[in-house]
Amino acid sequence: MTVHRHYTLTISCPDRAGIIAAVSSFIAQHGGFIVEASYHTELEAQRFFMRQEIRADSLPFEADELRRRFAPLAQEFDMSWQLADSAVKKRLVVLVSKQDHCLDDLLHRWRSGELLVDIPCVISNHQDLRSFVEWHGIPFIHVDMTDKAAAFDRIAALFEQHRGDTMVLARFMQILPPMLCQRFPGRIVNIHHSFLPSFVGARPYHQAYLRGVKLIGATCHYVTDELDAGPIIEQDTVRIDHGDTVDDLVRYGRDIEKTVLARGLRYHVEDRVLICGNKTIVFR
Amino acid sequence: MTVHRHYTLTISCPDRAGIIAAVSSFIAQHGGFIVEASYHTELEAQRFFMRQEIRADSLPFEADELRRRFAPLAQEFDMSWQLADSAVKKRLVVLVSKQDHCLDDLLHRWRSGELLVDIPCVISNHQDLRSFVEWHGIPFIHVDMTDKAAAFDRIAALFEQHRGDTMVLARFMQILPPMLCQRFPGRIVNIHHSFLPSFVGARPYHQAYLRGVKLIGATCHYVTDELDAGPIIEQDTVRIDHGDTVDDLVRYGRDIEKTVLARGLRYHVEDRVLICGNKTIVFR
Amino acid sequence: MTVHRHYTLTISCPDRAGIIAAVSSFIAQHGGFIVEASYHTELEAQRFFMRQEIRADSLPFEADELRRRFAPLAQEFDMSWQLADSAVKKRLVVLVSKQDHCLDDLLHRWRSGELLVDIPCVISNHQDLRSFVEWHGIPFIHVDMTDKAAAFDRIAALFEQHRGDTMVLARFMQILPPMLCQRFPGRIVNIHHSFLPSFVGARPYHQAYLRGVKLIGATCHYVTDELDAGPIIEQDTVRIDHGDTVDDLVRYGRDIEKTVLARGLRYHVEDRVLICGNKTIVFR
Amino acid sequence: MTVHRHYTLTISCPDRAGIIAAVSSFIAQHGGFIVEASYHTELEAQRFFMRQEIRADSLPFEADELRRRFAPLAQEFDMSWQLADSAVKKRLVVLVSKQDHCLDDLLHRWRSGELLVDIPCVISNHQDLRSFVEWHGIPFIHVDMTDKAAAFDRIAALFEQHRGDTMVLARFMQILPPMLCQRFPGRIVNIHHSFLPSFVGARPYHQAYLRGVKLIGATCHYVTDELDAGPIIEQDTVRIDHGDTVDDLVRYGRDIEKTVLARGLRYHVEDRVLICGNKTIVFR
């Protein structure tokens, strides 16, 4: 848990010798104190990935000035990069249907200060969770799904209007249209209730029950226009046995869904996840 | 760990009230002492499954007499059943290729007395593991695979000639022909190096690497004529991350393959696995 | 998940041959349909333990009549036993301090219908969680701890006045006096934030950090008059590493505490836990 | 799995800004290509820890020249450091008693090329494992323990005579005298058959059984002169239940002991473990 304000610098660029030296020298030259540093080379893609946390008070200027000064170096190495400031909280717009286990888990982490984000609103195609959300002082917005196209346009508009950084599908149970997925690449996080790539699509616990697997799982992933096929952020499994019914699987599944979503979201919010093709690098 | 000689009675029959009472009264009436008892009803199939371990020395007669006396009750309830005697070791015929991690693991459990079976021979399509197998005093039989049909006929013949109860594919790396699979239903145990149903077929670790999963797994299952689709006995998973190459996955995989195969085989050998359609009941 | 009303018969008695036969014959003779049956012999104690779920609608009479008819058999075998009716919900009185992760988890499971109990009140030595509890429509009772002896007398009185079956210490952070522990044996369930017997007492995450362990854990146990030494119901662990601070351990710990408490409580509430000396038999 | 020859540079020094920059610039200035890099600051100790793998063929000189050139920088930052060459295999001297599950596991990993070390000899206080060790072409040395002091002197002498880098206690079942522990700090690796700090000393599975824990574990640690209290490298746990006897615990334990020892040894051999007081930093 980082207590001091810090900047998180994430970089992706073509791999070559000297990148770490160049970046760390740049930081050192301004007196920057590196709290955490992680590196990875993706061999097939020949790309280098990097994440550094720098204590804000170790630098003699603010985030914008740091960005300005870093830009020439970034250009030299042909970097995709961004600098996040821990003082600027990410804004999560959460989408739910009727099931509230993931929502309950997220809101608890939010109100206890474990998940350091802003939640400008919760959007749902049902009214069931209004009271619970509003008890937290968070606006609850109901979107009618009768006209799906119009509904998704409205969701996209609400997301932008609330200046959302990330859209979280916390068991939303609706398939997003490709248009929406393509519009916010790497910004829509879903929790799927199976250990992907097993049991894509509807009723995964039922599929798992019929196949007679001995473990079930959950997968947190970025949404792309191919159903349940986007880059995986986090997964986990739990043991079941022959005595468990589909209802038991659903029950075990709830626990693992909320844990996996919470972990995946935390990595995402702390800028620990970098995307490379259809895979993720997660600097835990 | 059972130290005393015991009989293991496994039963499958149409579900109805009174089965447990009938069977346990039968055993009690002969003074039989039940060491372990497990029950399960498969709701969809409306079948009842049962496993009981009875101390041999608590009964006034031998296994054959017990079988003779139990037969009428079994008929009354329309049972599929069998009675195994712990004094009669199961005979495992093990098939391997070049990789020896599962074989090493099995032979260690065998020679240390943990896996109470006889291994009449090890069959391989390569010569590499001859010395290791023969050091254990176990015959090693090489089968040339140039003519696949002839090779599998020979394997089937060797299995029967050595009075094998179970054929264990300990990373055999050859697909068995349907004829062979159908000939020994519920008697061929395979270890597949993925968490089925994900990554069926060849090079599962490579498939897993390309999909970017965050856990890999292994599956111990009965072989049927549909590739990697037979009833699952045991599975497990292990965490990987973006830093792991395919070679790392293979290395992690070896550990989980041998553990999952060992557990699955143990359940099988101790008559803890009952098959219901394409699923297993595992009375651990 | 059991959907039909059922009776749960739990038995503990000196071990001997014929117990299963006697009990299952008794049930069968009244047409009782056994949904789930589990047995265990504790070798050192030479005691036999048994749990059976019987469908209520398969019997021609109610729970009280079943109890009356079963009593002679129970006496014959010198049984400690009880018969629970799934239609009569257990009453949990929950004690908390300021931390709400376990409480949030329990109340979510309760309001979603996963945890089938009544919660007549939540008792706390702080006011912080009043609003959250009252939003659920559950009375929140503040107990001042200035005079500890008086406070615990009041807690005991409140527990009895609300006809509590089980007192749940959901991170209550107060050590119960021996008098209270002895008064409700097997009825007070605590969640301790370490993998017992490691790190008994205060600040277990701090102790774990100093020792440099690579996993931390949580333990759900019955409270006895010896601190953190009562019979263990459930435990689990989670991996940490050198990069994790004490605050990180506390954060990981919260997730495992709530999961372990939820599992332990579920076993307890479903009468799956039988106590034998300082150990538990948990018929999962 | 690293395929190319590489140098592993491990560093520990007082924490301050600019260390990463200084070291990575030094490497970059000689064209060094960093394959893997890890950093950690131990806050209480105010020490910085670092590990870098550099491809050997990216540098214009050999390991000794690299060491010579790095020395002034190391002195400037007051570093404890070492540079390992992957072409120079570590030499493990393995000590065993009668139980061979850890030995079997290590020798399999060694002969399959997974564990890249030399094993100059195996030392034992029993003759049981001679044949198995010698089948591998490894000298087996029996040491009589009648005179313990003399025996441990001989073990120390054998270790030095065989130029051992690390002494591995693979279930050696003898307590090393403090003299020996102090003579080879950070160079003796033990596997203890419990989840330390629970169940220190003799018969940990028996202790675990009596306490009624629901998980058992194993711990790989450096040996110090305080019994079972040295820096922990790796730990893991496995679930047990009330039906498991002490013999079952021993059996489950064997699997976890060999896995934990193998992982811990791998980290040690790859110079991934740095010691800080009584804790370890493990750069996995």
UniProtKB/TrEMBL annotation, chains A, B, C, D:
Pathway: Purine metabolism; IMP biosynthesis via de novo pathway; formate from 10-formyl-5,6,7,8-tetrahydrofolate: step 1/1. Residues 8-88 form the ACT domain. It is an enzyme of class 3 (hydrolase). Its EC number is 3.5.1.10. The keyword tRNA processing does not apply. GO terms for biological process: 'de novo' IMP biosynthetic process; one-carbon metabolic process. InterPro entries: ACT-like_dom_sf (IPR045865), ACT_dom (IPR002912), Formyl-FH4-Hydrolase_C (IPR041729), Formyl_transf_N (IPR002376), Formyl_transf_N_sf (IPR036477), PurU (IPR004810), PurU_ACT (IPR044074). Keywords: Hydrolase, One-carbon metabolism, Purine biosynthesis. It catalyses: (6R)-10-formyltetrahydrofolate + H2O = (6S)-5,6,7,8-tetrahydrofolate + formate + H(+). PROSITE patterns: ACT. CDD domains: ACT_F4HF-DF (cd04875), FMT_core_Formyl-FH4-Hydrolase_C (cd08648). The active site is at residue 228. One of its GO terms (molecular function) is formyltetrahydrofolate deformylase activity. Catalyzes the hydrolysis of 10-formyltetrahydrofolate (formyl-FH4) to formate and tetrahydrofolate (FH4). Belongs to the PurU family. NCBIfam families: PRK06027.1, PurU. This is Formyltetrahydrofolate deformylase.
